Every structure is written in structure tokens, then in C-alpha cells.
Amino acid sequence: MAGPVRAADVVVVGGGSSGCVVAARLSEDPDRTVVLLESGPGYRSAAECSSVLDYRTLPVGPRSPYGDTYGIELTPGIPSAMVRGHVLGGSGAVNGAYFIRGTAPDFDRWPPSWSYEHVLPFFRALETDVDFEGPMHGATGPVPVRRQPADRLSAVSAAFHLAALDLGFAEEADKNGRDGEGIGPVPLNVGDGRRISTASAYLLPALDRPNLTVDVDSHVVRVLFSGTRAVGVEVDSGGARRAVRADRVVLAAGAVETPVLLMHSGIGPAEHLRDNGIRPVTDAPGVGSDFSDHPEVGLPYRVRAPLSRDATSPVLEAVLNVGQIEIRPYTASFDVLVPGSGQPVPRLGIGVMTPESRGRIRLASPHRRVRPRIEYRYAETDSDRRALRNGVALGVELLRSPAFHSLVEPIWEEVSDNEVRAHLGTSQHLCGSCRMGNSDDAGAVVDERCNVRGIDGLTIADTSVFPVVPSRGPHATAVMVAERVSTFLSG
Ligand SMILES: Cc1cc2nc3c(=O)[nH]c(=O)nc-3n(C[C@H](O)[C@H](O)[C@H](O)COP(=O)(O)OP(=O)(O)OC[C@H]3O[C@@H](n4cnc5c(N)ncnc54)[C@H](O)[C@@H]3O)c2cc1C
User: Fold this and answer.
1) 8 Å CB contact between 291 and 255
2) Catalytically annotated residues
3) Which residues constitute the domain of residue 13?
4) How many domains does the chain have?
5) Is the pLDDT of residue 360 over 90?
6) I want to staple 329 with a disulfide (CB 3.0 to 4.6 A). Which of 160, 228, 280, 423 is the partner?
7) To the nearest whole number, what is the mean pLDDT of the chain?
8) Max Cα–Cα distance, the chain, nearest Å
9) How far does residue 92's CA lie from ligand 1's centre (Å)?
């Protein structure tokens, strides 16, 4: 291989929501050398990267250097696109800044050592909640959490809040409680008027450590093995390919690229690997299989008067959670929220938060730079289709409520499966593509400490290890998992 070989105790692949946490936590021990490799661009200070800090928009439009777009199939015959953050801070540096914990029932679907009681201390440790205190909340963690004050709500959020109360839904002031439902303000990872990703909260303050090296614009192409032990990675950087040797490799490339990287390295469904000319290191049928995400229908509406939005308005200020439905009154149309997206029609987002349908990621080619095939297989079950229809019907009812009357009118009167299919999209919350599980679960890729089964020296710390997508946005849970895996690796 061309290029020099570097060595470290730990190499972390991917400087996103999870990888920044792991690199920062593991390098707190000055005797441990850590190398973080991130394929996207980086920055050393807030001043260098203003658009990833502007929480009022998502910088993932067609010309953005900070988003990687993938062609996907939502259901057979319905192509679409999804995006992942491609910058230090990852998807959490470009997302809606909606920073909400998974609920207690979500963790009943995880292995017992990840019960709500086990994970709550990590949720508390990662945050400083400026609005709430007490046993459920942290006061000294790196990520600031706040909510938009009621007197600053945008016109849509204020009307939505009233409409939900009119329909009899409960007020839920703290959506980071144990198991709540109702209408309430969105917890936001925003501080000093900026989006606070894990790059800003964890990594930038650690950059001066002599035992931490952060290489950006460095794309890892495969994990290196000696037998069934991971011994480092191969990385393309500055036009050259080189090796980074390490005692432990931690994959945090996200729920799309972590399984892709594993498959290119010989860990995946053996037959699929052989079909692509890749020699299996171990047969791992769960790699890329059975992922979950929240389907989202964009329910369009007409505006009777211009929608006012405060200069401080985030993308989302309030949501309604009811059963498996989440309704999201975006504060503006997507051409405003995602510059360059060209979507001028305002919408309510209708998400199904505990879907039954499961998707699949497979290699489309043996060539490393060819995008994978991503099949969502949304709405495959009657229950998922019913949930989508019911959610849309509730959205229409909210838009018809008197609170909205002077502002907007619904476009849809009747809700059919065809209309739902035509407006189907994804919440961009893909999780569980290398899920964690017990040894009797043939589809489990990692054990409860997130070590890859059948391989030594290889750990995964990102949203791919979630057994299933949580019933809320996954960002806060990704940070919690990274915090916890860091303690496993430090122990
Ligand atoms: C547009 C958008 C909006 C969203 N909105 C919200 C929201 O408001 N609330 C919420 O809870 N969730 C939201 N999400 C989801 C949430 O942000 C993600 O689930 C979470 O950030 C994923 O964390 P991760 O660590 O698994 O991966 P990521 O944060 O995606 O990090 C992966 C990192 O690895 C890097 N990488 C990939 N491949 C390689 C490689 N081969 N070599 C080196 N580096 C590599 C990538 O560049 C990236 O930086 C949103 C996601 C998107 C894309």
C-alpha cells in the first residue's frame, strides 16, 4: 500500500454525532492515543463554519458540501432521496436540532442491560437542560437543551398548539420525561444562538490534546484484519491511500456507511459478499438488514396570510405525540428550511414512530465509491398503512380547527392510500442496520457492549446498533449510546 502507516491505540471512523463523543471521551486519558478519521470537511472554530451552526435551516440542499445524498426506494416503485451529514459533527451538524430522548417503552425493546434505568444516567450526563431541573435532567453536560419560549412561537406553531388543545390533547411541557404524550415544545440542542452538534460540544474543546489526532477529508475504505482480529483501517486522504494501525477500531460512520464499510471489509451476509467478489471474514447476515426509520407524509396546506416566523425560529418548535403518531408543524416551507430544495408548499409532517416495516441496505457494486442500494420497504404492513392514514386524518382535522382558520386551509379533504403514497417520504432517522442483540439472535451484529460478534478489536458506536428506531428523533439517543460505549471502552 502507498503512503505511510500511522499507529494509535484507538481509531474512530466517522466524526459524526457519535464519533465526536467517542473520540473526545477516549482521549480524556492522556495515555491513550486516538485518531479520528472523518470523510467530510472540518473546522476548528465556530467562525469557520457558520452554516452548520445556523439552527434555523438545514444545510443539506443540492449544492451543499455538508450533505451526502443517496437514492432510495421508499416502497417498490417509489424512488426518493435521503441525506446524511458529511462534515465534522455528521448528521447532527445539519439536522433539525430536535434533541429528544427515546421513551422508557422504547428501551423495553433493547437488551435488558439497556433498560431505561440503565440509560437515564447517560442521558442526564450528556446535557445541560436550561429549562428543567431535578432527577430527570442534567445540569453540567456538554449539550445545552432548551425550548422556544411560548411568546416567540411562529404563527404555525402557536396555531398548532391551540388546535391540539382544542381537540383535547394534553399539554406536555417536558418532552424529555419518561413516557409522555401530547402537545409540547421541542427540546433543542441550541445554545448562544447556535446549533450545538457533538463537534462543537465535545470535539472542538478537545482538539489541543496531544494524544488526539483529527483527520478530516479522510475516507476510510475498509477495516484491516489479522485473521478475525481488526488491526486498523485503510483510508483515502489527500489523494493517497494509507493504513492506520490500532488496537481497537470503533466504527461510527452512521447507519448507512457503517454497514457498507463492514460489507466492503468482508463482514456481512456471506453469499451477498461473494456475489460482489468480496471474501467473507465472517458471515454476519444482520449487516444492513432490518433497519427501521420513521415514514413521514408531508401533508400540504394553503396559506391564507403570510406565515410569520421569528428571527430565532428553529425548524420545529412544537410537536404532538399521540400513540404511534408524531405531527410536526414545520415553521416554514422547505424551500426556506432547506435552502435550494425548491419545495415552496408548506406542510405538516406526519410521522409513524413505531413502524413494523423493516428496510435493507445492500452493496450495488463491489466498487467502494458506488452508492449502496437502500430499500426502505415502508408501509408493508396493514398496521403501518393504517397508522399513516390515521395520522394524516388527524393532521387534516388539526388544520380544520378554528385555531388555524385565519391562517391556513387544508388541501386534502379525503385521505386515501394513494394520496398517502404520493406524499410519502422519510424522516431521515435511519437506525438499526447493525443491530445489537443477544447471542441467540442470529440477526444481531454486535453484542450488548457493541462489539462486533465473531471479531476481536472491532466496536460499533452509532445509530446502526440501535435494535430499532426509537419512537422519537434518534439524535439524543445516538449521543447517549456513544457516551455509554466510551465507558465500556475505558473500563
Ligand atoms: C437532514 C436531517 C435532519 C435530521 N433531523 C433530526 C432531528 O431534528 N432530530 C433528531 O433526533 N434526528 C434528526 N436526524 C437524524 C440524526 O441527526 C441522526 O440519526 C444522527 O445524527 C446519526 O448519528 P450517527 O453518529 O449515527 O451518524 P452521523 O452523525 O451521520 O455520522 C457519521 C459520520 O461518519 C462520516 N463517514 C461516513 N462514512 C465514512 C467513512 N467511510 N470514512 C470516514 N468517515 C465517514 C460522515 O461524514 C459523518 O460525519 C436528522 C438527520 C438528517 C440527515
Assistant:
1) yes
2) 429
3) 5-490
4) 1
5) yes
6) 160
7) 95
8) 68
9) 6
